[in-house]
Design brief:
Length: 501
Protein backbone atom coordinates (compact mmCIF):
# COMPACT_ATOMS: atom_id res chain seq x y z
CA UNK A 1 0.00 0.00 0.00
CA UNK A 2 2.83 2.39 0.94
CA UNK A 3 4.65 1.56 -2.31
CA UNK A 4 1.49 2.21 -4.32
CA UNK A 5 0.96 5.54 -2.56
CA UNK A 6 4.61 6.52 -3.12
CA UNK A 7 4.34 5.61 -6.80
CA UNK A 8 1.17 7.73 -7.15
CA UNK A 9 2.96 10.73 -5.63
CA UNK A 10 5.88 10.30 -8.04
CA UNK A 11 3.44 10.03 -10.95
CA UNK A 12 1.67 13.27 -9.96
CA UNK A 13 4.97 15.12 -9.58
CA UNK A 14 6.19 13.88 -12.96
CA UNK A 15 2.94 14.88 -14.62
CA UNK A 16 3.17 18.36 -13.10
CA UNK A 17 6.77 18.74 -14.29
CA UNK A 18 5.89 17.63 -17.80
CA UNK A 19 2.96 20.02 -17.89
CA UNK A 20 5.07 22.92 -16.67
CA UNK A 21 7.80 22.13 -19.20
CA UNK A 22 5.34 21.93 -22.09
CA UNK A 23 5.95 24.91 -24.33
CA UNK A 24 3.08 27.22 -25.17
CA UNK A 25 1.93 27.73 -28.70
CA UNK A 26 4.08 30.29 -30.49
CA UNK A 27 3.68 32.69 -33.36
CA UNK A 28 5.00 31.17 -36.58
CA UNK A 29 6.39 34.57 -37.65
CA UNK A 30 7.91 35.98 -34.44
CA UNK A 31 8.34 32.99 -32.14
CA UNK A 32 6.60 34.85 -29.32
CA UNK A 33 4.22 32.88 -27.09
CA UNK A 34 0.49 33.29 -27.53
CA UNK A 35 -1.73 33.77 -24.45
CA UNK A 36 1.26 34.52 -22.21
CA UNK A 37 1.38 37.60 -19.96
CA UNK A 38 5.19 37.40 -19.95
CA UNK A 39 5.28 37.83 -23.72
CA UNK A 40 2.85 40.72 -24.08
CA UNK A 41 -0.39 38.77 -23.73
CA UNK A 42 -1.32 38.55 -27.41
CA UNK A 43 -4.27 36.18 -27.52
CA UNK A 44 -5.03 33.38 -29.95
CA UNK A 45 -8.31 31.55 -29.59
CA UNK A 46 -9.06 27.89 -29.94
CA UNK A 47 -12.04 28.48 -32.19
CA UNK A 48 -14.10 25.78 -33.86
CA UNK A 49 -16.05 28.13 -36.10
CA UNK A 50 -19.26 30.13 -36.12
CA UNK A 51 -22.13 28.31 -34.46
CA UNK A 52 -25.55 28.17 -36.05
CA UNK A 53 -27.95 30.57 -34.35
CA UNK A 54 -31.50 29.62 -33.34
CA UNK A 55 -33.75 28.62 -36.26
CA UNK A 56 -31.00 29.25 -38.83
CA UNK A 57 -29.80 26.97 -41.64
CA UNK A 58 -26.42 27.35 -43.34
CA UNK A 59 -26.82 28.25 -47.00
CA UNK A 60 -23.59 27.39 -48.79
CA UNK A 61 -22.94 30.15 -51.31
CA UNK A 62 -22.26 29.84 -55.01
CA UNK A 63 -22.94 31.14 -58.49
CA UNK A 64 -26.40 31.22 -60.04
CA UNK A 65 -28.43 33.05 -62.65
CA UNK A 66 -30.48 35.61 -60.79
CA UNK A 67 -33.67 36.79 -62.46
CA UNK A 68 -36.85 35.52 -64.03
CA UNK A 69 -37.00 31.84 -64.95
CA UNK A 70 -40.38 32.06 -66.70
CA UNK A 71 -42.11 34.26 -69.23
CA UNK A 72 -42.51 37.85 -68.07
CA UNK A 73 -46.30 37.91 -68.40
CA UNK A 74 -46.46 41.25 -66.56
CA UNK A 75 -44.09 42.82 -69.12
CA UNK A 76 -42.26 44.69 -66.35
CA UNK A 77 -38.72 43.64 -67.32
CA UNK A 78 -37.66 44.39 -63.75
CA UNK A 79 -35.52 41.32 -63.14
CA UNK A 80 -33.35 40.70 -66.18
CA UNK A 81 -31.41 37.42 -65.76
CA UNK A 82 -27.71 37.86 -64.94
CA UNK A 83 -25.08 35.64 -63.36
CA UNK A 84 -24.04 36.55 -59.80
CA UNK A 85 -22.28 34.94 -56.86
CA UNK A 86 -23.63 34.88 -53.32
CA UNK A 87 -21.35 34.26 -50.34
CA UNK A 88 -22.36 31.67 -47.77
CA UNK A 89 -24.87 32.89 -45.20
CA UNK A 90 -27.54 31.66 -42.81
CA UNK A 91 -31.28 31.84 -43.39
CA UNK A 92 -34.23 31.22 -41.09
CA UNK A 93 -35.67 27.77 -41.59
CA UNK A 94 -39.16 29.27 -41.39
CA UNK A 95 -40.95 32.57 -41.63
CA UNK A 96 -41.11 34.48 -38.35
CA UNK A 97 -44.28 33.29 -36.63
CA UNK A 98 -46.85 35.07 -34.48
CA UNK A 99 -45.46 33.52 -31.29
CA UNK A 100 -41.96 34.68 -32.28
CA UNK A 101 -43.12 38.23 -32.87
CA UNK A 102 -45.25 38.30 -29.70
CA UNK A 103 -42.13 37.39 -27.72
CA UNK A 104 -40.56 40.51 -29.19
CA UNK A 105 -43.48 42.84 -28.40
CA UNK A 106 -43.72 41.36 -24.88
CA UNK A 107 -40.05 42.18 -24.24
CA UNK A 108 -40.43 45.69 -25.65
CA UNK A 109 -43.43 46.31 -23.40
CA UNK A 110 -41.64 44.90 -20.33
CA UNK A 111 -38.49 46.97 -20.84
CA UNK A 112 -39.79 50.19 -22.42
CA UNK A 113 -43.55 50.14 -21.88
CA UNK A 114 -43.68 52.10 -18.63
CA UNK A 115 -41.44 54.99 -19.72
CA UNK A 116 -41.75 54.84 -23.51
CA UNK A 117 -45.16 53.32 -24.35
CA UNK A 118 -44.87 54.69 -27.89
CA UNK A 119 -41.99 52.27 -28.54
CA UNK A 120 -44.27 49.34 -27.72
CA UNK A 121 -47.09 50.69 -29.88
CA UNK A 122 -44.67 51.24 -32.75
CA UNK A 123 -43.60 47.57 -32.60
CA UNK A 124 -47.12 46.13 -32.88
CA UNK A 125 -48.16 44.70 -36.26
CA UNK A 126 -51.03 46.33 -38.10
CA UNK A 127 -53.88 43.87 -37.53
CA UNK A 128 -56.26 46.11 -39.51
CA UNK A 129 -54.71 44.78 -42.72
CA UNK A 130 -57.32 42.01 -42.51
CA UNK A 131 -60.21 44.41 -43.06
CA UNK A 132 -61.85 44.40 -46.50
CA UNK A 133 -64.91 46.30 -47.67
CA UNK A 134 -66.46 43.24 -49.32
CA UNK A 135 -65.08 40.40 -47.16
CA UNK A 136 -65.91 39.25 -43.64
CA UNK A 137 -62.45 39.16 -42.07
CA UNK A 138 -63.23 40.87 -38.76
CA UNK A 139 -62.43 37.76 -36.66
CA UNK A 140 -58.90 37.75 -38.09
CA UNK A 141 -58.39 41.34 -36.98
CA UNK A 142 -58.95 40.33 -33.37
CA UNK A 143 -57.49 36.83 -33.29
CA UNK A 144 -54.81 36.18 -35.93
CA UNK A 145 -51.90 37.78 -34.08
CA UNK A 146 -53.03 37.14 -30.49
CA UNK A 147 -54.87 33.81 -30.30
CA UNK A 148 -52.84 30.63 -29.61
CA UNK A 149 -54.58 28.91 -32.51
CA UNK A 150 -52.34 30.97 -34.79
CA UNK A 151 -49.11 30.76 -32.75
CA UNK A 152 -47.21 28.86 -35.45
CA UNK A 153 -48.59 30.86 -38.35
CA UNK A 154 -46.47 33.57 -40.04
CA UNK A 155 -46.82 37.06 -38.63
CA UNK A 156 -48.27 39.53 -41.14
CA UNK A 157 -49.07 43.23 -41.04
CA UNK A 158 -45.42 43.94 -40.29
CA UNK A 159 -43.76 46.85 -42.06
CA UNK A 160 -40.27 46.60 -43.50
CA UNK A 161 -39.08 49.01 -40.81
CA UNK A 162 -40.60 46.82 -38.09
CA UNK A 163 -39.00 43.68 -39.51
CA UNK A 164 -35.64 45.47 -39.40
CA UNK A 165 -36.17 46.47 -35.76
CA UNK A 166 -37.15 42.90 -34.87
CA UNK A 167 -33.91 41.67 -36.43
CA UNK A 168 -31.86 44.06 -34.27
CA UNK A 169 -33.71 42.98 -31.14
CA UNK A 170 -33.21 39.31 -31.96
CA UNK A 171 -29.47 39.87 -32.38
CA UNK A 172 -29.24 41.28 -28.86
CA UNK A 173 -31.35 38.57 -27.25
CA UNK A 174 -29.37 35.75 -28.88
CA UNK A 175 -26.01 37.30 -27.95
CA UNK A 176 -27.16 37.90 -24.39
CA UNK A 177 -28.23 34.26 -24.18
CA UNK A 178 -24.82 33.12 -25.46
CA UNK A 179 -23.01 35.15 -22.79
CA UNK A 180 -25.28 33.68 -20.13
CA UNK A 181 -24.63 30.14 -21.39
CA UNK A 182 -20.88 30.80 -21.31
CA UNK A 183 -21.16 31.81 -17.65
CA UNK A 184 -20.07 35.40 -18.31
CA UNK A 185 -23.39 37.05 -17.43
CA UNK A 186 -26.27 36.08 -15.20
CA UNK A 187 -29.75 36.31 -16.67
CA UNK A 188 -31.30 39.64 -15.78
CA UNK A 189 -35.03 40.21 -16.06
CA UNK A 190 -34.89 43.60 -14.35
CA UNK A 191 -33.62 45.47 -17.41
CA UNK A 192 -35.41 48.77 -17.93
CA UNK A 193 -35.16 51.60 -20.46
CA UNK A 194 -31.54 52.24 -21.50
CA UNK A 195 -30.25 49.69 -18.96
CA UNK A 196 -30.79 46.69 -21.25
CA UNK A 197 -28.38 44.40 -23.03
CA UNK A 198 -27.48 45.78 -26.42
CA UNK A 199 -24.64 44.09 -28.29
CA UNK A 200 -23.01 47.33 -29.44
CA UNK A 201 -23.31 49.07 -26.06
CA UNK A 202 -21.89 46.03 -24.27
CA UNK A 203 -18.91 45.81 -26.60
CA UNK A 204 -17.88 49.45 -26.04
CA UNK A 205 -18.35 49.25 -22.26
CA UNK A 206 -21.59 51.22 -21.96
CA UNK A 207 -23.49 48.24 -20.55
CA UNK A 208 -22.03 45.96 -17.90
CA UNK A 209 -24.94 43.73 -16.94
CA UNK A 210 -25.16 41.25 -14.10
CA UNK A 211 -21.64 39.81 -14.33
CA UNK A 212 -21.04 36.25 -13.24
CA UNK A 213 -17.44 35.70 -14.32
CA UNK A 214 -15.57 37.71 -16.94
CA UNK A 215 -12.84 36.33 -19.19
CA UNK A 216 -9.12 36.40 -18.45
CA UNK A 217 -7.15 39.26 -19.97
CA UNK A 218 -3.76 37.84 -20.98
CA UNK A 219 -2.31 41.32 -21.31
CA UNK A 220 -2.89 42.28 -17.66
CA UNK A 221 -3.63 38.93 -16.05
CA UNK A 222 -6.93 40.33 -14.77
CA UNK A 223 -10.49 39.83 -16.00
CA UNK A 224 -12.33 41.60 -18.79
CA UNK A 225 -15.75 41.59 -20.50
CA UNK A 226 -16.24 39.50 -23.63
CA UNK A 227 -15.22 40.97 -26.97
CA UNK A 228 -16.68 40.22 -30.37
CA UNK A 229 -13.25 38.84 -31.28
CA UNK A 230 -13.73 36.10 -28.67
CA UNK A 231 -16.06 34.35 -31.10
CA UNK A 232 -18.82 33.91 -28.52
CA UNK A 233 -21.34 36.35 -29.94
CA UNK A 234 -22.86 36.10 -33.39
CA UNK A 235 -23.10 38.66 -36.21
CA UNK A 236 -26.37 40.50 -36.56
CA UNK A 237 -29.66 39.00 -37.61
CA UNK A 238 -30.95 41.01 -40.58
CA UNK A 239 -33.24 40.83 -43.57
CA UNK A 240 -31.71 38.84 -46.44
CA UNK A 241 -30.68 40.65 -49.60
CA UNK A 242 -32.77 39.97 -52.67
CA UNK A 243 -29.93 37.93 -54.17
CA UNK A 244 -29.57 35.85 -51.00
CA UNK A 245 -33.31 35.25 -50.79
CA UNK A 246 -33.60 34.22 -54.43
CA UNK A 247 -30.54 31.96 -54.22
CA UNK A 248 -31.85 30.27 -51.06
CA UNK A 249 -35.31 29.82 -52.57
CA UNK A 250 -34.05 28.17 -55.77
CA UNK A 251 -31.82 25.78 -53.77
CA UNK A 252 -29.95 24.70 -56.89
CA UNK A 253 -27.75 22.37 -54.83
CA UNK A 254 -30.47 19.83 -55.58
CA UNK A 255 -29.85 20.29 -59.32
CA UNK A 256 -26.16 19.37 -59.36
CA UNK A 257 -24.81 16.50 -61.40
CA UNK A 258 -23.79 13.25 -59.76
CA UNK A 259 -20.17 14.38 -59.70
CA UNK A 260 -21.21 17.45 -57.71
CA UNK A 261 -18.86 19.75 -59.58
CA UNK A 262 -21.02 21.03 -62.42
CA UNK A 263 -24.47 22.59 -62.40
CA UNK A 264 -27.17 21.13 -64.63
CA UNK A 265 -28.08 23.79 -67.19
CA UNK A 266 -31.84 23.61 -66.59
CA UNK A 267 -33.03 26.23 -64.11
CA UNK A 268 -35.86 25.94 -61.67
CA UNK A 269 -39.11 27.81 -62.12
CA UNK A 270 -40.06 27.21 -58.48
CA UNK A 271 -38.11 26.09 -55.37
CA UNK A 272 -38.72 22.50 -56.52
CA UNK A 273 -38.18 20.55 -59.75
CA UNK A 274 -40.63 20.70 -62.61
CA UNK A 275 -43.06 23.31 -63.83
CA UNK A 276 -46.05 22.22 -61.76
CA UNK A 277 -47.21 22.89 -58.22
CA UNK A 278 -48.01 19.31 -57.18
CA UNK A 279 -45.64 16.64 -55.89
CA UNK A 280 -44.74 14.27 -58.73
CA UNK A 281 -42.86 11.36 -57.18
CA UNK A 282 -44.68 8.09 -56.70
CA UNK A 283 -44.97 7.93 -52.92
CA UNK A 284 -47.38 8.97 -50.19
CA UNK A 285 -47.04 12.65 -51.14
CA UNK A 286 -47.83 12.16 -54.83
CA UNK A 287 -50.33 14.72 -56.09
CA UNK A 288 -50.21 16.91 -53.01
CA UNK A 289 -49.75 20.65 -53.27
CA UNK A 290 -46.21 21.98 -52.78
CA UNK A 291 -47.20 25.46 -51.62
CA UNK A 292 -50.04 27.55 -50.22
CA UNK A 293 -51.37 29.80 -52.98
CA UNK A 294 -54.55 30.74 -54.87
CA UNK A 295 -55.13 28.12 -57.57
CA UNK A 296 -57.63 30.10 -59.59
CA UNK A 297 -60.26 32.78 -59.22
CA UNK A 298 -62.17 32.14 -56.00
CA UNK A 299 -60.24 28.93 -55.13
CA UNK A 300 -58.02 29.39 -52.07
CA UNK A 301 -58.01 25.83 -50.71
CA UNK A 302 -60.12 23.41 -52.75
CA UNK A 303 -63.20 21.35 -51.87
CA UNK A 304 -64.28 20.16 -48.43
CA UNK A 305 -63.08 16.62 -47.82
CA UNK A 306 -60.30 17.04 -50.36
CA UNK A 307 -58.61 20.34 -49.60
CA UNK A 308 -55.62 21.03 -51.84
CA UNK A 309 -53.40 23.22 -49.62
CA UNK A 310 -55.52 23.01 -46.45
CA UNK A 311 -55.40 26.77 -45.84
CA UNK A 312 -57.85 29.49 -46.87
CA UNK A 313 -55.34 32.12 -45.77
CA UNK A 314 -51.94 31.38 -44.19
CA UNK A 315 -50.68 27.96 -43.09
CA UNK A 316 -48.31 27.02 -40.22
CA UNK A 317 -44.71 27.99 -40.92
CA UNK A 318 -43.60 24.34 -41.17
CA UNK A 319 -46.23 23.32 -43.68
CA UNK A 320 -45.41 21.60 -46.99
CA UNK A 321 -42.10 20.04 -47.95
CA UNK A 322 -38.93 22.11 -47.42
CA UNK A 323 -36.66 22.85 -50.36
CA UNK A 324 -33.21 21.34 -50.88
CA UNK A 325 -31.67 23.76 -48.36
CA UNK A 326 -34.23 22.69 -45.75
CA UNK A 327 -36.19 25.96 -45.90
CA UNK A 328 -39.97 25.96 -45.56
CA UNK A 329 -42.41 28.05 -47.61
CA UNK A 330 -39.93 29.79 -49.88
CA UNK A 331 -42.90 29.87 -52.25
CA UNK A 332 -46.40 30.72 -51.12
CA UNK A 333 -47.89 31.18 -47.65
CA UNK A 334 -46.71 34.80 -47.28
CA UNK A 335 -44.57 37.11 -49.34
CA UNK A 336 -41.36 38.09 -47.57
CA UNK A 337 -39.55 41.39 -47.17
CA UNK A 338 -35.94 41.57 -48.35
CA UNK A 339 -33.37 44.27 -47.68
CA UNK A 340 -33.20 45.82 -51.15
CA UNK A 341 -34.58 49.12 -52.32
CA UNK A 342 -36.72 48.54 -55.40
CA UNK A 343 -35.79 49.87 -58.80
CA UNK A 344 -37.55 49.00 -62.09
CA UNK A 345 -34.18 48.15 -63.63
CA UNK A 346 -31.59 45.92 -62.03
CA UNK A 347 -27.98 46.92 -61.48
CA UNK A 348 -26.84 44.88 -64.48
CA UNK A 349 -28.38 47.50 -66.77
CA UNK A 350 -26.08 50.26 -65.51
CA UNK A 351 -23.30 50.23 -68.10
CA UNK A 352 -20.77 52.17 -66.05
CA UNK A 353 -21.15 50.14 -62.86
CA UNK A 354 -18.78 47.21 -62.46
CA UNK A 355 -18.17 44.53 -59.83
CA UNK A 356 -21.84 44.21 -58.91
CA UNK A 357 -21.89 40.49 -59.53
CA UNK A 358 -20.77 39.51 -56.01
CA UNK A 359 -23.40 39.84 -53.28
CA UNK A 360 -25.39 42.50 -55.16
CA UNK A 361 -27.75 44.80 -53.27
CA UNK A 362 -29.35 48.19 -53.68
CA UNK A 363 -29.89 49.78 -50.31
CA UNK A 364 -26.48 50.33 -48.73
CA UNK A 365 -26.18 52.99 -46.05
CA UNK A 366 -22.61 53.42 -44.84
CA UNK A 367 -22.53 54.71 -41.27
CA UNK A 368 -19.94 55.16 -38.58
CA UNK A 369 -20.15 55.29 -34.82
CA UNK A 370 -20.64 58.75 -33.38
CA UNK A 371 -17.62 59.61 -31.25
CA UNK A 372 -16.49 62.52 -29.10
CA UNK A 373 -13.36 64.62 -29.63
CA UNK A 374 -11.25 61.91 -27.99
CA UNK A 375 -12.56 59.22 -30.33
CA UNK A 376 -14.73 57.51 -27.72
CA UNK A 377 -18.34 56.53 -28.54
CA UNK A 378 -20.81 59.15 -27.38
CA UNK A 379 -23.34 58.19 -24.72
CA UNK A 380 -25.93 55.64 -25.87
CA UNK A 381 -29.49 56.79 -26.51
CA UNK A 382 -32.50 56.47 -24.23
CA UNK A 383 -33.22 52.94 -25.52
CA UNK A 384 -29.68 51.73 -24.79
CA UNK A 385 -28.38 51.79 -28.37
CA UNK A 386 -25.24 53.36 -29.75
CA UNK A 387 -25.56 56.34 -32.06
CA UNK A 388 -24.42 56.27 -35.68
CA UNK A 389 -24.20 58.80 -38.49
CA UNK A 390 -23.66 58.72 -42.24
CA UNK A 391 -20.13 59.12 -43.53
CA UNK A 392 -19.60 62.64 -44.79
CA UNK A 393 -18.42 63.18 -48.37
CA UNK A 394 -15.11 64.68 -47.23
CA UNK A 395 -14.39 61.56 -45.15
CA UNK A 396 -14.60 59.46 -48.31
CA UNK A 397 -12.81 61.86 -50.66
CA UNK A 398 -9.66 59.73 -50.90
CA UNK A 399 -11.42 56.40 -51.27
CA UNK A 400 -11.98 54.63 -54.55
CA UNK A 401 -14.51 52.03 -53.34
CA UNK A 402 -17.28 54.26 -51.99
CA UNK A 403 -17.98 57.94 -52.51
CA UNK A 404 -21.00 58.61 -50.31
CA UNK A 405 -22.61 57.38 -47.13
CA UNK A 406 -26.16 57.10 -48.48
CA UNK A 407 -26.11 54.87 -51.56
CA UNK A 408 -29.81 54.03 -51.80
CA UNK A 409 -30.22 55.70 -55.19
CA UNK A 410 -26.65 55.38 -56.41
CA UNK A 411 -26.49 56.04 -60.18
CA UNK A 412 -30.27 55.66 -60.38
CA UNK A 413 -32.03 58.81 -59.24
CA UNK A 414 -29.11 60.69 -57.71
CA UNK A 415 -27.37 63.78 -59.07
CA UNK A 416 -25.03 61.69 -61.30
CA UNK A 417 -27.91 60.02 -63.14
CA UNK A 418 -30.51 61.22 -65.58
CA UNK A 419 -33.35 59.58 -63.65
CA UNK A 420 -35.59 61.50 -61.27
CA UNK A 421 -37.97 59.68 -58.94
CA UNK A 422 -40.71 62.12 -57.97
CA UNK A 423 -42.96 59.98 -55.81
CA UNK A 424 -46.65 60.59 -56.50
CA UNK A 425 -46.01 62.64 -59.66
CA UNK A 426 -44.36 60.33 -62.18
CA UNK A 427 -43.91 57.09 -60.24
CA UNK A 428 -44.72 55.21 -57.06
CA UNK A 429 -41.07 54.23 -56.71
CA UNK A 430 -38.95 56.10 -54.18
CA UNK A 431 -36.06 55.36 -51.82
CA UNK A 432 -38.68 53.94 -49.45
CA UNK A 433 -39.79 51.28 -51.95
CA UNK A 434 -38.64 47.87 -50.72
CA UNK A 435 -38.68 44.54 -52.53
CA UNK A 436 -40.79 41.61 -51.40
CA UNK A 437 -40.74 38.14 -52.93
CA UNK A 438 -42.12 34.63 -52.77
CA UNK A 439 -45.84 34.80 -53.45
CA UNK A 440 -48.57 34.31 -50.85
CA UNK A 441 -51.80 32.53 -50.01
CA UNK A 442 -53.62 35.20 -52.05
CA UNK A 443 -51.37 35.04 -55.15
CA UNK A 444 -51.51 32.95 -58.30
CA UNK A 445 -48.73 30.50 -59.14
CA UNK A 446 -46.82 33.03 -61.29
CA UNK A 447 -45.67 34.90 -58.17
CA UNK A 448 -44.28 31.74 -56.54
CA UNK A 449 -41.23 31.85 -58.81
CA UNK A 450 -38.18 33.11 -56.86
CA UNK A 451 -37.30 35.46 -59.72
CA UNK A 452 -40.58 37.38 -59.48
CA UNK A 453 -40.39 40.64 -57.55
CA UNK A 454 -42.74 43.36 -56.34
CA UNK A 455 -42.42 46.33 -54.03
CA UNK A 456 -44.17 48.23 -51.27
CA UNK A 457 -43.18 51.23 -49.21
CA UNK A 458 -41.13 50.33 -46.14
CA UNK A 459 -43.63 52.03 -43.81
CA UNK A 460 -46.65 50.12 -45.14
CA UNK A 461 -47.94 46.68 -44.14
CA UNK A 462 -50.02 43.98 -45.82
CA UNK A 463 -51.88 40.82 -44.80
CA UNK A 464 -49.90 38.86 -47.40
CA UNK A 465 -46.39 39.97 -46.35
CA UNK A 466 -44.23 38.51 -43.57
CA UNK A 467 -40.48 37.99 -43.30
CA UNK A 468 -37.62 35.78 -42.21
CA UNK A 469 -34.11 36.69 -41.05
CA UNK A 470 -30.64 35.99 -42.38
CA UNK A 471 -27.12 36.20 -40.95
CA UNK A 472 -23.68 36.53 -42.50
CA UNK A 473 -21.45 33.45 -42.41
CA UNK A 474 -17.96 34.17 -41.06
CA UNK A 475 -15.10 31.88 -42.10
CA UNK A 476 -15.27 28.77 -44.24
CA UNK A 477 -17.99 28.84 -46.87
CA UNK A 478 -18.83 25.14 -46.55
CA UNK A 479 -19.22 25.18 -42.77
CA UNK A 480 -17.13 24.29 -39.75
CA UNK A 481 -14.46 21.69 -40.38
CA UNK A 482 -15.12 21.61 -44.13
CA UNK A 483 -13.04 22.95 -46.98
CA UNK A 484 -15.38 22.40 -49.89
CA UNK A 485 -14.41 22.09 -53.55
CA UNK A 486 -10.88 20.99 -54.42
CA UNK A 487 -9.02 22.94 -51.75
CA UNK A 488 -6.15 21.37 -49.85
CA UNK A 489 -6.44 21.70 -46.12
CA UNK A 490 -3.19 23.12 -44.79
CA UNK A 491 -1.95 22.30 -41.31
CA UNK A 492 0.31 24.84 -39.66
CA UNK A 493 3.23 23.49 -37.63
CA UNK A 494 5.21 25.47 -35.09
CA UNK A 495 8.14 27.21 -36.73
CA UNK A 496 6.22 28.10 -39.88
CA UNK A 497 6.49 24.82 -41.83
CA UNK A 498 3.37 23.45 -43.51
CA UNK A 499 2.27 20.14 -44.86
CA UNK A 500 -0.69 19.01 -46.93
CA UNK A 501 -2.82 16.04 -46.14
Amino acid sequence: MKKLLKFSVYLLVATALLTSCKSKERSSTTGWNYNDTKWGGFEKLKYDGQITGPNLVLIEGGTFTMGLTQEDVMYEWNNIPRKVTVSSFYMDETEVSNIDYREYTYWVDRVFGETYPEVYRKALPDTMVWYDELSYNEPMVQTYFRHPSFDEYPVVGVKWTQATEYSKWRTDRVNEMLLVEKGILNSNNEQKDDDNFNTGSYLVGQYEGNVRKNLKDFRTGESRPARFEDGIMLPEYRLPTEAEWEYAALALKGKQSSEGDEMITDRRVYPWDGGGTRYQKRDKYQGQMLANFKREKGDYMGLAGRLNDNAAVTAPVRSFLPNDFGLYNMAGNVNEWVADVYRPLTSSTLRDVENQDLNPIRGNEFKRLQTDQDGRPVEKDSLGRLKYRFFQDDELANRDNIRRGDALNYRDGDKESNVVYEYGKHTLVSDKARVYKGGSWADRAYWLSPGARRYKNEDEADRTIGFRCAMTRLGGAAGNGKTGGNQFKVKQKRGGSKRRY
